[in-house]
Protein backbone atom coordinates (compact mmCIF):
# COMPACT_ATOMS: atom_id res chain seq x y z
CA UNK A 1 0.00 0.00 0.00
CA UNK A 2 1.59 3.28 -1.10
CA UNK A 3 1.66 6.25 1.28
CA UNK A 4 -0.66 9.13 0.56
CA UNK A 5 0.78 12.26 -0.87
CA UNK A 6 0.98 15.26 1.38
CA UNK A 7 -2.17 17.26 0.74
CA UNK A 8 -0.73 20.32 2.41
CA UNK A 9 -3.16 20.13 5.30
CA UNK A 10 -1.70 20.56 8.76
CA UNK A 11 -1.70 17.47 10.97
CA UNK A 12 -4.12 17.69 13.92
CA UNK A 13 -2.59 18.67 17.23
CA UNK A 14 -2.15 15.79 19.68
CA UNK A 15 -4.81 15.53 22.34
CA UNK A 16 -3.72 14.79 25.91
CA UNK A 17 -6.01 12.69 28.06
CA UNK A 18 -4.19 13.72 31.23
CA UNK A 19 -4.19 17.14 32.80
CA UNK A 20 -0.74 18.44 33.55
CA UNK A 21 -0.31 18.76 37.29
CA UNK A 22 0.07 22.24 38.68
CA UNK A 23 1.21 22.68 42.26
CA UNK A 24 -1.48 24.25 44.42
CA UNK A 25 -0.37 26.95 46.81
CA UNK A 26 -3.09 27.14 49.44
CA UNK A 27 -3.68 30.35 51.31
CA UNK A 28 -4.22 30.30 55.07
CA UNK A 29 -7.80 30.93 56.14
CA UNK A 30 -9.47 31.51 59.47
CA UNK A 31 -13.08 30.88 60.30
CA UNK A 32 -15.72 28.68 61.87
CA UNK A 33 -15.25 25.75 59.48
CA UNK A 34 -11.47 25.90 59.71
CA UNK A 35 -11.71 25.79 63.50
CA UNK A 36 -13.85 22.67 63.36
CA UNK A 37 -11.44 21.09 60.91
CA UNK A 38 -8.57 21.58 63.34
CA UNK A 39 -10.69 20.30 66.22
CA UNK A 40 -11.09 17.06 64.27
CA UNK A 41 -7.36 17.02 63.45
CA UNK A 42 -6.48 17.26 67.13
CA UNK A 43 -9.15 14.78 68.19
CA UNK A 44 -8.24 12.08 65.66
CA UNK A 45 -4.51 12.40 66.28
CA UNK A 46 -4.78 12.39 70.06
CA UNK A 47 -6.75 9.15 69.78
CA UNK A 48 -4.44 7.60 67.17
CA UNK A 49 -1.12 8.50 68.80
CA UNK A 50 -2.33 8.16 72.40
CA UNK A 51 -4.25 4.86 72.37
CA UNK A 52 -1.18 2.55 72.21
CA UNK A 53 0.19 4.15 75.41
CA UNK A 54 -2.92 3.53 77.50
CA UNK A 55 -2.74 0.65 79.99
CA UNK A 56 -5.50 -1.61 81.24
CA UNK A 57 -4.97 -4.31 83.90
CA UNK A 58 -1.21 -4.17 83.41
CA UNK A 59 -1.29 -4.48 79.63
CA UNK A 60 -1.81 -2.29 76.60
CA UNK A 61 -5.44 -1.18 76.51
CA UNK A 62 -5.83 -1.29 72.71
CA UNK A 63 -3.81 -4.05 71.08
CA UNK A 64 -4.51 -6.27 68.09
CA UNK A 65 -1.87 -8.82 69.04
CA UNK A 66 -1.20 -10.84 65.90
CA UNK A 67 1.36 -13.17 67.48
CA UNK A 68 -0.94 -14.22 70.33
CA UNK A 69 -4.00 -13.95 68.07
CA UNK A 70 -5.84 -11.89 70.67
CA UNK A 71 -7.49 -8.52 70.31
CA UNK A 72 -7.58 -6.40 73.43
CA UNK A 73 -10.01 -3.48 73.61
CA UNK A 74 -9.78 -2.23 77.19
CA UNK A 75 -11.66 -4.87 79.24
CA UNK A 76 -12.77 -6.82 76.19
CA UNK A 77 -10.68 -9.70 74.85
CA UNK A 78 -11.60 -10.95 71.39
CA UNK A 79 -10.28 -14.04 69.64
CA UNK A 80 -10.18 -15.01 65.96
CA UNK A 81 -13.48 -16.81 66.53
CA UNK A 82 -15.01 -13.38 67.21
CA UNK A 83 -14.45 -12.18 63.64
CA UNK A 84 -18.22 -11.75 63.53
CA UNK A 85 -17.78 -8.49 65.45
CA UNK A 86 -15.35 -7.24 62.82
CA UNK A 87 -18.02 -7.82 60.19
CA UNK A 88 -20.49 -5.87 62.33
CA UNK A 89 -18.00 -3.01 62.66
CA UNK A 90 -17.54 -2.85 58.90
CA UNK A 91 -21.32 -2.87 58.34
CA UNK A 92 -21.79 -0.08 60.90
CA UNK A 93 -19.04 1.98 59.26
CA UNK A 94 -20.59 1.52 55.82
CA UNK A 95 -24.09 2.54 56.92
CA UNK A 96 -22.71 5.51 58.88
CA UNK A 97 -20.91 6.62 55.73
CA UNK A 98 -24.12 6.26 53.69
CA UNK A 99 -26.09 8.21 56.28
CA UNK A 100 -23.65 11.11 56.66
CA UNK A 101 -23.15 11.36 52.91
CA UNK A 102 -26.89 11.42 52.25
CA UNK A 103 -27.30 14.21 54.82
CA UNK A 104 -24.28 16.44 54.25
CA UNK A 105 -22.07 15.13 51.47
CA UNK A 106 -18.38 14.49 52.00
CA UNK A 107 -18.16 15.36 55.69
CA UNK A 108 -15.74 12.53 56.32
CA UNK A 109 -13.45 13.68 53.49
CA UNK A 110 -13.37 17.27 54.68
CA UNK A 111 -12.81 16.70 58.37
CA UNK A 112 -11.76 13.19 59.41
CA UNK A 113 -10.18 11.43 56.41
CA UNK A 114 -6.51 10.59 57.15
CA UNK A 115 -5.51 12.12 53.81
CA UNK A 116 -7.15 15.43 54.77
CA UNK A 117 -5.87 15.35 58.35
CA UNK A 118 -2.23 14.69 57.48
CA UNK A 119 -2.29 17.07 54.53
CA UNK A 120 -3.43 19.78 56.96
CA UNK A 121 -0.60 18.91 59.34
CA UNK A 122 2.01 18.86 56.58
CA UNK A 123 0.74 22.15 55.10
CA UNK A 124 0.86 23.77 58.56
CA UNK A 125 4.51 22.74 58.87
CA UNK A 126 5.19 24.03 55.35
CA UNK A 127 3.60 27.40 56.16
CA UNK A 128 5.57 27.81 59.38
CA UNK A 129 8.92 26.98 57.76
CA UNK A 130 8.64 28.45 54.25
CA UNK A 131 6.15 31.23 54.89
CA UNK A 132 2.71 32.16 53.57
CA UNK A 133 1.36 31.52 50.09
CA UNK A 134 3.19 34.32 48.30
CA UNK A 135 6.46 33.53 50.11
CA UNK A 136 6.23 29.86 49.09
CA UNK A 137 5.54 30.72 45.47
CA UNK A 138 8.46 33.12 45.41
CA UNK A 139 10.75 30.57 47.07
CA UNK A 140 9.86 27.82 44.57
CA UNK A 141 10.39 30.09 41.55
CA UNK A 142 13.73 31.38 42.80
CA UNK A 143 17.14 29.75 42.33
CA UNK A 144 18.56 27.20 44.75
CA UNK A 145 20.25 29.30 47.42
CA UNK A 146 21.62 28.28 50.79
CA UNK A 147 18.51 29.66 52.48
CA UNK A 148 16.19 27.75 50.14
CA UNK A 149 18.15 24.53 50.68
CA UNK A 150 17.95 24.81 54.47
CA UNK A 151 14.24 25.69 54.44
CA UNK A 152 13.41 22.74 52.17
CA UNK A 153 15.63 20.41 54.20
CA UNK A 154 13.98 21.47 57.46
CA UNK A 155 10.50 20.97 56.00
CA UNK A 156 11.23 17.51 54.65
CA UNK A 157 13.01 16.48 57.86
CA UNK A 158 9.89 17.41 59.85
CA UNK A 159 7.67 15.55 57.38
CA UNK A 160 9.85 12.45 57.56
CA UNK A 161 9.94 12.53 61.36
CA UNK A 162 6.13 12.65 61.55
CA UNK A 163 5.81 9.93 58.89
CA UNK A 164 8.17 7.49 60.64
CA UNK A 165 6.57 8.13 64.03
CA UNK A 166 3.14 7.53 62.47
CA UNK A 167 4.36 4.24 61.00
CA UNK A 168 5.78 3.26 64.40
CA UNK A 169 2.45 4.09 66.05
CA UNK A 170 0.54 1.97 63.53
CA UNK A 171 2.76 -1.05 64.24
CA UNK A 172 2.28 -0.41 67.99
CA UNK A 173 -1.35 -1.42 67.55
CA UNK A 174 -0.21 -4.91 66.50
CA UNK A 175 2.96 -5.38 68.58
CA UNK A 176 3.05 -4.13 72.21
CA UNK A 177 4.58 -0.67 72.28
CA UNK A 178 6.94 -1.55 75.16
CA UNK A 179 8.36 -4.41 73.08
CA UNK A 180 8.87 -2.07 70.13
CA UNK A 181 10.65 0.50 72.28
CA UNK A 182 12.88 -2.18 73.80
CA UNK A 183 13.75 -3.44 70.30
CA UNK A 184 14.81 -0.02 68.96
CA UNK A 185 16.84 0.62 66.93
CA UNK A 186 18.20 -2.70 65.60
CA UNK A 187 16.08 -5.34 67.31
CA UNK A 188 12.91 -4.87 65.27
CA UNK A 189 11.75 -7.76 63.12
CA UNK A 190 11.70 -7.54 59.36
CA UNK A 191 7.93 -7.23 59.19
CA UNK A 192 7.87 -4.49 61.83
CA UNK A 193 10.50 -2.50 59.95
CA UNK A 194 8.68 -3.06 56.66
CA UNK A 195 5.36 -1.72 57.91
CA UNK A 196 6.90 1.23 59.75
CA UNK A 197 8.68 2.41 56.61
CA UNK A 198 5.94 1.30 54.20
CA UNK A 199 3.19 3.23 56.00
CA UNK A 200 5.51 6.12 56.82
CA UNK A 201 6.70 6.31 53.21
CA UNK A 202 3.18 6.42 51.83
CA UNK A 203 2.20 9.09 54.36
CA UNK A 204 5.24 11.20 53.37
CA UNK A 205 4.42 10.84 49.68
CA UNK A 206 0.65 11.35 49.84
CA UNK A 207 0.45 14.15 52.42
CA UNK A 208 3.61 15.88 51.28
CA UNK A 209 3.47 15.63 47.49
CA UNK A 210 0.27 14.09 46.09
CA UNK A 211 -2.25 15.76 48.40
CA UNK A 212 -5.23 16.79 46.26
CA UNK A 213 -4.32 14.23 43.60
CA UNK A 214 -5.23 11.45 46.04
CA UNK A 215 -8.69 12.99 46.48
CA UNK A 216 -9.19 13.69 42.78
CA UNK A 217 -7.73 10.60 41.10
CA UNK A 218 -6.98 7.85 43.62
CA UNK A 219 -9.79 7.86 46.17
CA UNK A 220 -12.75 5.66 45.06
CA UNK A 221 -15.13 7.49 47.38
CA UNK A 222 -14.87 10.62 45.23
CA UNK A 223 -16.11 8.60 42.29
CA UNK A 224 -19.11 6.80 43.74
CA UNK A 225 -20.27 9.57 46.06
CA UNK A 226 -22.31 11.03 43.20
CA UNK A 227 -24.83 8.21 43.40
CA UNK A 228 -25.25 8.89 47.12
CA UNK A 229 -26.16 12.55 46.61
CA UNK A 230 -29.57 13.90 45.68
CA UNK A 231 -31.02 17.43 45.38
CA UNK A 232 -31.79 17.44 49.13
CA UNK A 233 -28.22 16.65 50.25
CA UNK A 234 -26.40 19.47 52.03
CA UNK A 235 -23.36 20.47 49.99
CA UNK A 236 -21.14 23.53 49.74
CA UNK A 237 -22.75 25.65 47.05
CA UNK A 238 -22.22 29.02 45.39
CA UNK A 239 -25.39 31.05 44.87
CA UNK A 240 -25.17 32.23 41.23
CA UNK A 241 -28.53 33.99 41.37
CA UNK A 242 -27.16 36.27 44.02
CA UNK A 243 -23.51 36.43 42.95
CA UNK A 244 -23.70 36.93 39.19
CA UNK A 245 -22.65 38.85 37.26
CA UNK A 246 -19.49 38.96 39.30
CA UNK A 247 -16.98 41.78 39.18
CA UNK A 248 -14.80 44.09 41.23
CA UNK A 249 -16.31 47.22 42.77
CA UNK A 250 -14.75 50.34 41.32
CA UNK A 251 -14.85 53.81 42.78
CA UNK A 252 -17.56 55.83 41.13
CA UNK A 253 -18.72 52.76 39.17
CA UNK A 254 -22.25 51.40 39.03
CA UNK A 255 -22.27 48.51 41.49
CA UNK A 256 -25.99 47.95 41.08
CA UNK A 257 -25.44 46.13 37.78
CA UNK A 258 -23.19 43.57 39.50
CA UNK A 259 -23.92 40.63 41.73
CA UNK A 260 -22.56 40.19 45.23
CA UNK A 261 -19.43 38.30 44.08
CA UNK A 262 -16.51 40.75 43.82
CA UNK A 263 -14.39 38.18 41.94
CA UNK A 264 -11.59 38.35 44.52
CA UNK A 265 -10.56 34.73 43.90
CA UNK A 266 -10.06 33.95 47.57
CA UNK A 267 -12.41 30.97 47.40
CA UNK A 268 -10.07 29.41 44.84
CA UNK A 269 -6.89 30.39 46.69
CA UNK A 270 -7.94 28.58 49.89
CA UNK A 271 -9.35 25.44 48.23
CA UNK A 272 -7.17 22.38 49.02
CA UNK A 273 -8.14 20.73 45.73
CA UNK A 274 -7.77 23.91 43.64
CA UNK A 275 -11.30 24.07 42.24
CA UNK A 276 -13.52 27.09 41.71
CA UNK A 277 -16.70 26.48 43.67
CA UNK A 278 -18.44 29.11 41.52
CA UNK A 279 -18.46 26.61 38.64
CA UNK A 280 -21.05 24.49 40.46
CA UNK A 281 -20.94 21.17 42.30
CA UNK A 282 -17.80 19.21 41.42
CA UNK A 283 -16.65 15.77 42.52
CA UNK A 284 -13.25 17.23 43.53
CA UNK A 285 -14.89 19.23 46.33
CA UNK A 286 -14.16 17.55 49.66
CA UNK A 287 -16.61 19.68 51.64
CA UNK A 288 -14.05 21.29 53.93
CA UNK A 289 -15.76 24.71 54.05
CA UNK A 290 -12.56 26.72 53.46
CA UNK A 291 -14.26 28.71 50.67
CA UNK A 292 -17.07 29.69 53.06
CA UNK A 293 -14.54 30.97 55.61
CA UNK A 294 -12.83 33.00 52.87
CA UNK A 295 -16.02 34.45 51.35
CA UNK A 296 -17.95 35.51 54.45
CA UNK A 297 -15.41 38.17 55.62
CA UNK A 298 -15.38 39.62 52.08
CA UNK A 299 -19.15 39.95 52.19
CA UNK A 300 -18.80 41.75 55.53
CA UNK A 301 -16.36 44.23 54.00
CA UNK A 302 -18.56 45.07 51.01
CA UNK A 303 -21.68 45.32 53.16
CA UNK A 304 -23.43 42.24 51.77
CA UNK A 305 -25.06 39.43 53.77
CA UNK A 306 -23.02 36.31 54.42
CA UNK A 307 -23.84 33.05 52.68
CA UNK A 308 -22.91 33.71 49.08
CA UNK A 309 -21.10 30.38 49.46
CA UNK A 310 -22.78 28.20 52.03
CA UNK A 311 -23.92 24.73 53.03
CA UNK A 312 -27.30 24.22 51.41
CA UNK A 313 -29.12 21.88 49.05
CA UNK A 314 -29.79 22.15 45.33
CA UNK A 315 -33.53 22.28 45.96
CA UNK A 316 -33.16 24.93 48.64
CA UNK A 317 -31.09 27.07 46.30
CA UNK A 318 -33.46 26.71 43.37
CA UNK A 319 -36.71 27.00 45.32
CA UNK A 320 -35.56 29.45 48.02
CA UNK A 321 -36.39 27.20 50.95
CA UNK A 322 -36.49 28.57 54.47
CA UNK A 323 -34.19 26.88 57.04
CA UNK A 324 -37.18 24.95 58.39
CA UNK A 325 -38.04 23.68 54.91
CA UNK A 326 -34.41 22.65 54.34
CA UNK A 327 -34.46 20.53 57.51
CA UNK A 328 -37.79 18.95 56.59
CA UNK A 329 -36.44 17.94 53.18
CA UNK A 330 -33.22 16.56 54.69
CA UNK A 331 -35.26 14.17 56.86
CA UNK A 332 -36.41 12.24 53.81
CA UNK A 333 -37.18 8.48 53.56
CA UNK A 334 -33.67 7.33 52.63
CA UNK A 335 -32.16 9.20 55.60
CA UNK A 336 -34.75 7.77 57.98
CA UNK A 337 -34.15 4.27 56.55
CA UNK A 338 -30.35 4.56 56.94
CA UNK A 339 -30.82 5.85 60.48
CA UNK A 340 -33.18 3.03 61.45
CA UNK A 341 -30.89 0.35 60.03
CA UNK A 342 -27.82 1.90 61.67
CA UNK A 343 -29.50 2.18 65.07
CA UNK A 344 -30.74 -1.41 64.83
CA UNK A 345 -27.30 -2.80 63.94
CA UNK A 346 -25.57 -0.78 66.68
CA UNK A 347 -28.15 -1.87 69.25
CA UNK A 348 -27.79 -5.52 68.22
CA UNK A 349 -24.00 -5.28 68.39
CA UNK A 350 -24.06 -3.72 71.85
CA UNK A 351 -26.54 -6.32 73.08
CA UNK A 352 -24.42 -9.13 71.64
CA UNK A 353 -21.27 -7.84 73.34
CA UNK A 354 -23.08 -7.26 76.63
CA UNK A 355 -24.54 -10.78 76.72
CA UNK A 356 -21.46 -12.47 75.26
CA UNK A 357 -20.29 -15.46 77.29
CA UNK A 358 -16.57 -14.92 78.04
CA UNK A 359 -15.76 -18.58 77.49
CA UNK A 360 -15.09 -20.52 74.32
CA UNK A 361 -14.63 -24.27 74.04
CA UNK A 362 -13.58 -26.48 71.16
CA UNK A 363 -14.08 -30.24 71.63
CA UNK A 364 -11.96 -32.45 69.39
CA UNK A 365 -12.18 -36.23 69.69
CA UNK A 366 -8.82 -38.01 69.51
CA UNK A 367 -9.03 -39.70 66.14
CA UNK A 368 -5.97 -41.86 66.69
CA UNK A 369 -8.02 -43.85 69.22
CA UNK A 370 -11.52 -44.45 67.88
CA UNK A 371 -12.88 -46.42 70.81
CA UNK A 372 -11.34 -48.85 73.24
CA UNK A 373 -12.36 -51.10 76.10
CA UNK A 374 -11.07 -50.09 79.53
CA UNK A 375 -9.92 -52.49 82.28
CA UNK A 376 -13.35 -52.36 83.92
CA UNK A 377 -15.11 -53.35 80.67
CA UNK A 378 -16.48 -49.91 79.87
CA UNK A 379 -15.95 -48.21 76.52
CA UNK A 380 -13.90 -45.06 76.49
CA UNK A 381 -13.17 -42.24 74.05
CA UNK A 382 -10.45 -39.62 74.42
CA UNK A 383 -11.10 -35.92 73.79
CA UNK A 384 -8.99 -32.79 73.59
CA UNK A 385 -10.74 -29.73 75.01
CA UNK A 386 -9.45 -26.25 74.10
CA UNK A 387 -10.83 -23.92 76.74
CA UNK A 388 -10.46 -20.18 76.08
CA UNK A 389 -10.89 -17.88 79.06
CA UNK A 390 -11.66 -14.49 77.51
CA UNK A 391 -11.95 -12.66 80.83
CA UNK A 392 -9.31 -10.55 82.57
CA UNK A 393 -9.06 -12.85 85.59
CA UNK A 394 -8.14 -16.53 86.10
CA UNK A 395 -11.03 -18.98 86.22
CA UNK A 396 -11.63 -22.53 87.43
CA UNK A 397 -14.04 -24.51 85.28
CA UNK A 398 -16.05 -27.62 86.17
CA UNK A 399 -16.42 -30.25 83.43
CA UNK A 400 -19.33 -32.64 83.03
CA UNK A 401 -20.78 -34.78 80.24
CA UNK A 402 -24.27 -36.06 79.40
CA UNK A 403 -26.21 -37.74 76.60
CA UNK A 404 -25.74 -41.48 77.37
CA UNK A 405 -26.68 -43.63 80.37
CA UNK A 406 -23.84 -43.97 82.85
CA UNK A 407 -21.51 -41.62 80.96
CA UNK A 408 -18.83 -39.92 83.04
CA UNK A 409 -15.45 -38.23 82.88
CA UNK A 410 -12.56 -40.23 84.29
CA UNK A 411 -10.21 -38.33 86.58
CA UNK A 412 -10.16 -34.68 87.61
CA UNK A 413 -13.18 -32.68 86.49
CA UNK A 414 -11.70 -29.24 87.20
CA UNK A 415 -9.56 -27.12 84.89
CA UNK A 416 -7.75 -23.91 85.85
CA UNK A 417 -7.23 -21.37 83.05
CA UNK A 418 -5.31 -18.12 83.43
CA UNK A 419 -6.75 -14.80 82.32
CA UNK A 420 -7.06 -14.33 78.55
CA UNK A 421 -5.48 -17.73 77.94
CA UNK A 422 -6.17 -20.75 75.77
CA UNK A 423 -5.72 -23.96 77.76
CA UNK A 424 -5.77 -27.45 76.25
CA UNK A 425 -6.69 -30.48 78.34
CA UNK A 426 -7.08 -34.17 77.47
CA UNK A 427 -9.96 -36.02 79.11
CA UNK A 428 -11.21 -39.59 79.01
CA UNK A 429 -14.94 -40.33 78.83
CA UNK A 430 -16.34 -43.81 79.63
CA UNK A 431 -19.75 -45.42 79.24
CA UNK A 432 -21.12 -48.90 80.00
CA UNK A 433 -21.02 -51.10 76.87
CA UNK A 434 -24.81 -51.47 76.79
CA UNK A 435 -25.65 -47.74 77.01
CA UNK A 436 -25.31 -46.84 73.38
CA UNK A 437 -25.74 -48.10 69.85
CA UNK A 438 -22.86 -49.18 67.67
CA UNK A 439 -21.32 -46.29 65.81
CA UNK A 440 -21.71 -42.58 66.57
CA UNK A 441 -23.68 -41.39 69.60
CA UNK A 442 -24.36 -37.72 70.37
CA UNK A 443 -23.13 -36.44 73.73
CA UNK A 444 -22.77 -32.97 75.27
CA UNK A 445 -20.02 -31.42 77.34
CA UNK A 446 -20.91 -28.80 79.93
CA UNK A 447 -18.14 -26.42 80.99
CA UNK A 448 -19.09 -24.02 83.78
CA UNK A 449 -17.09 -21.46 85.73
CA UNK A 450 -17.05 -21.98 89.49
CA UNK A 451 -19.09 -19.32 91.30
CA UNK A 452 -20.25 -17.89 87.95
CA UNK A 453 -23.15 -19.95 86.69
CA UNK A 454 -23.77 -17.54 83.81
CA UNK A 455 -20.37 -18.38 82.34
CA UNK A 456 -21.14 -21.77 80.83
CA UNK A 457 -20.89 -23.55 77.49
CA UNK A 458 -22.91 -26.53 76.25
CA UNK A 459 -20.85 -28.19 73.50
CA UNK A 460 -21.93 -31.04 71.24
CA UNK A 461 -19.61 -34.01 70.52
CA UNK A 462 -19.70 -37.60 69.24
CA UNK A 463 -19.01 -40.78 71.20
CA UNK A 464 -18.07 -43.87 69.19
CA UNK A 465 -19.18 -47.33 70.27
CA UNK A 466 -17.59 -50.46 68.73
Overview of this structure, please?
With 466 residues, the chain is of the alpha+beta class. It folds into 2 domains: 20-356, no CATH class; 359-465, Immunoglobulin-like. It is built from 16 helices and 16 strands. The protein has helices at 32-50, 83-104, 107-111, 114-130, 133-141, 146-172, 177-183, 190-210, 212-218, 221-224, 240-243, 266-269, 290-301, 314-319, 323-330, 333-354; strands at 55-56, 59-60, 62-65, 70-73, 76-78, 235-238, 309-312, 359-365, 372-373, 379-389, 395-402, 408-410, 414-417, 421-431, 439-449, 452-465. The strands form 5 sheets. Strands 8, 9, 10, 12 and 14 form a 5-stranded antiparallel sheet that branches. A 4-stranded antiparallel sheet has the order 13-11-15-16, with no helix packed on it. Strands 3-4-5 form a 3-stranded antiparallel sheet, with no helix packed on it. The longest helix is centred in the middle third of the chain and has 27 residues, at 146-172. The protein is elongated, with a radius of gyration of 33 Å. The mean pLDDT is 89.
Amino acid sequence: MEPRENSGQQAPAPVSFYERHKKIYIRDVKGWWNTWRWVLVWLTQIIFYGAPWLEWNGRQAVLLHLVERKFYLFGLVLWPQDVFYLALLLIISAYALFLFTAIAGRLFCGYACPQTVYSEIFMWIENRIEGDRSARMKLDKGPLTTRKFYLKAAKHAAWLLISIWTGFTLVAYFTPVDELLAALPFGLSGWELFWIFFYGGFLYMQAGFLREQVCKYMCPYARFQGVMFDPDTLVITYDPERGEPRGARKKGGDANSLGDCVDCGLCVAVCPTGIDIRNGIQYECIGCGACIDACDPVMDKVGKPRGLIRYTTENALAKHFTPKEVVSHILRPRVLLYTAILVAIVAASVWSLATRVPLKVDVIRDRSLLAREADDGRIENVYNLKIMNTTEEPRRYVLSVEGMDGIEIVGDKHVDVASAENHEVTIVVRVPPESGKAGANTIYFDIKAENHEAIAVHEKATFLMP
